[in-house]
Design a protein that fits this description.
With 488 residues, the protein is an alpha/beta fold. The protein contains 15 helices and 23 strands. Strands 1-5-4-2-3-6 form a 6-stranded mixed sheet, with helices on both faces.
Length: 488
């Protein structure tokens, strides 16, 4: 039997190689056994929740059939199953889990991975990614029982229901929707052939906003790209925007839980820039006096902390220092940010890949919510994205970023990380080394706040090399240094 392991965000594998109907049924049975055990033993917070599970899926090859298999296994284990009728954004499924008081959820998606992959994202009752402990517990139930696929009348336990309207209604309450509705903003949305296609048109139908949706067709090959919101995937949309300028272009990934973007003329925005724009908006426009952000509340607790993954820009650190906000740094994977959000008192949770979470909504990244919040920012300040970024850079200094993904055998990662920890560079470019962080990969930080990080992907046989510095030239030099360290 195949060895199934959960990575950064669930289990992912190549379709028809390891991601098969038999293996999906095995994982679904393990999840069912875990949830039943928790309910039966009253060991966790899910005791008292409805014995219901929400199951959704994306646009990948056979995702609908894999989701149906999951639903049948769960129904065979006496769970009531809410199955989406068509490809649905991951945050819509996550919101449904929380809204329907379900014990958990399953989303069949491989997010931004290549089209040959599919995945099994596990959601917990609070509407966020399951914790590492929960994922290990599910792994522990693998093959304890055979998948329950042939139980009499199990079909009666599966209801097909569109969970998007409830999610969209929640989004309209999260943002100042009336302000956006009358803003007359003209923006584009590149869906990267994913499930986000049409969502902004539906949300803003009947308002003064003009929405242009690009790359919206259902294509299981995603137009020949990996549906990730990064500049190398923006080419055709950039050409379109140069010929047809807009106020902004939002980009969502394959399952619409992450966001990227471009300015109105096709110049790519990094996810770091988007994160800093949103943090600025929440502090300055939504919080009043930055030294007293008590108006921003999460469950009655003053929202004063910002949570970011290790690979996120150091401009966030400088903004938090300037406004007196505590900053929490986590490993890569939104489940770690989710754990902090569940404690309360969080203003914003962010990660380099474009995952952004808003307390008071769901403790989960939501690319659609992040997009609407950017529109609220533009409607509030009535200023171009370019000018807003220039103001931030004037206040906190230039921050340039780059990343290289290179194939690297997973079995060699541990030796590389050990080598890096024992042989740190004395300086990064011209600045002496000030710090080294090793709780998720290895991150070298210089005295001038530039940094270099090497880390293995949690979902692919890839080594990611990240760098940030004051200029693009310095970023390229740091990335070359990272490649040299990896070769050694």
């Amino acid at each position: 039997m195949n060895d199934i392991k959960f990575g950064t965000d669930g289990w992912r594998a190549v379709i028809a190689e390891d991601f098969t109907f038999a293996n999906v049924a095995r994982v679904a049975q393990a999840a069912a056994d875990y949830w039943k055990s928790e309910i039966r033993n009253q060991k966790s917070q899910i005791f008292g929740f409805q014995p219901r599970v929400v199951v959704g899926y994306d646009r990948r090859f056979f995702s609908d059939r894999f989701a149906r298999t999951v639903a049948e296994v769960l129904a065979g284990n006496n769970f009531q199953v809410v199955l989406t009728p068509e490809p649905t954004p991951t945050p819509s499924v996550s919101y449904a889990v929380k809204n329907l008081r379900a014990v958990g959820g399953v989303m069949i998606t491989a997010s931004h991975n290549p089209p040959i992959f599919n995945g099994f994202k596990l959601k917990s009752h609070y509407g966020g990614s399951s914790s590492p402990e929960e994922c290990r517990a599910v792994e522990g139930f693998l093959d304890k029982n055979p998948p329950q696929l042939r139980i009499t009348n199990h079909e009666s336990r599966i209801s097909v229901h569109d969970v998007r309207p409830a999610h969209y209604a929640a989004l309209k309450k999260l943002v100042d929707f009336k302000l956006i509705a009358k803003s007359k903003l003209r923006f584009a949305h590149d869906a990267l052939f994913g499930v986000g296609a049409g969502c902004f048109e539906q949300l803003l139908a009947g308002t003064t906003c003009q929405v242009t949706t690009l790359n919206a067709r259902h294509d299981v090959l995603f137009g020949g790209i990996n549906p990730e919101p990064i500049e190398k995937n923006y080419g055709p949309t950039q050409k379109f925007l140069r010929a047809h300028p807009h106020d902004l272009c939002l980009v969502t990934d394959g399952d619409a839980d992450r966001v990227g973007g471009m300015d109105g003329r096709g110049n790519a925005l990094t996810t770091h820039q988007i994160i800093c724009l949103l943090l600025h908006h929440l502090i300055v426009n939504r919080g009043g006096d930055a030294s007293s952000p008590s108006d921003l509340r999460d469950g009655g607790v003053a929202a004063t902390r910002v949570v970011k993954a290790l690979t996120t820009t150091s401009m966030v650190d400088k903004m938090c220092a300037a406004y007196g906000l505590p900053l929490i740094e986590t490993g890569v994977g939104f489940k770690y940010i989710c754990a902090e959000m569940l404690k309360g008192g969080v203003l914003l949770g962010v990660e380099e890949s474009g995952g952004i979470g808003f307390p008071g909504h769901i403790p989960e990244r939501d690319g659609i919510a992040a997009g609407l919040m950017l529109l609220e920012l533009l409607a509030t300040e009535r200023m171009s994205v370019t000018r807003l970024l220039a103001k931030l850079e004037k206040q906190f200094g230039p921050h340039r970023y780059g990343r290289i993904d290179t194939h690297y055998p997973p079995e060699k990662r541990a030796a590389l990380m050990e080598f890096l920890q024992k042989n740190p560079p004395a300086k990064l470019l011209r600045s002496p080394l000030a710090d080294m962080k090793t709780f998720d990969g290895v991150k070298f930080i210089a005295q001038d706040t530039s940094w270099l990080m090497l880390r293995g992907s949690g979902t692919e046989p890839i080594l990611r090399i990240y760098a940030e510095a004051k200029s693009d030239t310095d970023v390229r030099k740091l990335l070359r240094l990272g490649m040299a360290l990896a070769r050694n």
